[in-house]
Design brief:
The protein is of the alpha+beta class and 140 residues long. It has one domain: Nucleoside Triphosphate Pyrophosphohydrolase, CATH 3.90.79. Helices cover 14% and strands 30% of the residues. It contains 2 helices and 7 strands. The protein is globular. The protein starts with 10 loop residues before the first strand and ends with a helix.
Length: 140
């Protein structure tokens, strides 16, 4: 097959997790000052390292960001976000996790909150995260 190759936006793959506690609340973290989209609330997670599976990335990121231990079989894929930012296109699978070891705490200077899914709409969130709220409301 021959033809012209059209360059599109750079695709950035990140993975996110909705930690759900026994009361049906979801954990969100506030992006710290100095980072892109600082002050906005998001689901914890981050970029995949080369050769890393999404579940491996989440396990690593949740340990680094929140100090908790998560097992891969406790991560259930729920939905994904696909959002075009100015300089790249974000693709972000969202997993749900109801079991972990440890108590989540903001280990990178970020504030964290536990919130009922319907209340997440009250928070300023990045454009890619906001559409995921409806899926959490339906689930919980």
């Amino acid at each position: 097959m021959s033809g012209t190759v059209i360059e599109g936006p750079r695709i950035v793959l990140v993975v996110a997790c909705a930690l759900v506690d026994a009361d049906g609340r979801v954990l969100v973290a506030q992006r710290p000052e100095g980072k892109a989209l600082a002050g906005l609330w998001e689901f914890p997670g981050g970029k995949l390292e080369p050769g890393e599976r999404p579940e491996e990335s989440l396990i690593r990121e949740l340990a680094e960001e929140l100090g908790i231990t998560v097992k891969a079989d406790c991560l259930a894929p729920l939905t994904f976000a696909s959002h075009g930012y100015e300089s790249f296109h974000l693709l972000m699978p969202l997993y749900v996790c109801r079991r972990w070891e440890g108590t989540p705490e903001g280990r990178e200077g970020q504030a964290i909150r536990w919130m009922k899914p319907a209340r997440l709409r009250d928070l300023p969130m990045p454009p890619a995260d906001a559409p995921l709220i409806a899926h959490l409301i339906d689930l919980l």
